[in-house]
Amino acid sequence: MTVAQQKSSSEFALELVDVRKSFGKTEIIRGANLKVKPGERVAIIGPNGAGKSTLFNLISGRFGISSGEIRLGGARIDGLQPYEINRRGLARSFQVSNLFSRLSVFENIRCAVLWSQGHRYAFWKFLADLHDANDRAEEIVEAVGLDKRRDHLAVNLTYAEQRALEIGITIAGGSSVILLDEPTAGMSKSETKRFIQLIRQVTEGRTLLTVEHDMGVVFGLADRIAVLVYGEVIAFDTPEAVRANPRVQEAYLGSVLADQQAAQAGH
Ligand SMILES: Nc1ncnc2c1ncn2[C@@H]1O[C@H](COP(=O)(O)OP(=O)(O)OP(=O)(O)O)[C@@H](O)[C@H]1O
């Protein structure tokens, strides 16, 4: 049974309780609170330097927190190593540069499936016997729309296809909580639209957190939006409520939406 299939022992898939993080004397995350329900899609937005990437690094265990608590399905995960957090059901998107460029799409995803099952890099001789991993990898290749590219090397994929492969690798272990860092960055408008649809499909039934700058993606994908400003979550609500929130308008969204409208008017 994968972690995603286990019944959560908590009302919340992910909880941040007064999380703080300092680098040296500078406090970057200043008491962040967030309660994400199972199956919710949440976008974290905020100005440059607000601490969005840092928050992802804290949740996924790359950095330790200075104080507070982080809970996954009710159980504390702060203080654990990234691989331990991953085993408990939280997966963070790999960067494109972490793909095995000389392996095919299928092989990349099969590696991720095997890794999630506890195999490391000495598994090659057993590959032919690992039917379950093969079947699961086939399903994921299809789910991320790369079936026609199944046997192509990762290095030969287009950028958008590499990002799709990255999503496939992220979901391969069956994690219940998925963290995606700017999943559509660098894509064209039409690629972005297709990609939002793909993310919606492959994360169906899972909890999704994205860090995102593109407001089109945010409003197209998120059930709720967390607005991070100076290391604090100043609003966590539906897209409509966040858009209408005067504090958010003042701190962030007013200027972002004005910039986007100006950019569109200029085209
Ligand atoms: N490892 C680190 N050591 C010291 N300072 C850091 C470290 N990582 C991040 N910071 C600082 O923390 C602050 C928040 O950075 P972070 O990258 O989390 O913001 P962000 O909201 O993701 O920004 P952006 O939208 O520009 O990506 C910045 O001032 C950054 O310089």
UniProtKB/TrEMBL annotation:
Q: Which SUPFAM superfamilies match?
A: P-loop containing nucleoside triphosphate hydrolases
Q: Which UniProt keywords apply?
A: ATP-binding, Cell membrane, Membrane, Nucleotide-binding, Transport
Report the SMART domains cross-referenced here: AAA (SM00382)
Q: Does the keyword Calcium apply?
A: no
Presence of keyword Cell membrane: yes
Where is the secretion signal located?
none
InterPro entries listed in its UniProt record: AAA+_ATPase, ABC_AA/LPS_Transport, ABC_transporter-like_ATP-bd, BCA_ABC_TP_C, P-loop_NTPase
Q: What is this protein called?
A: ABC transporter domain-containing protein
Q: Give the originating organism.
A: Sphaerotilus microaerophilus
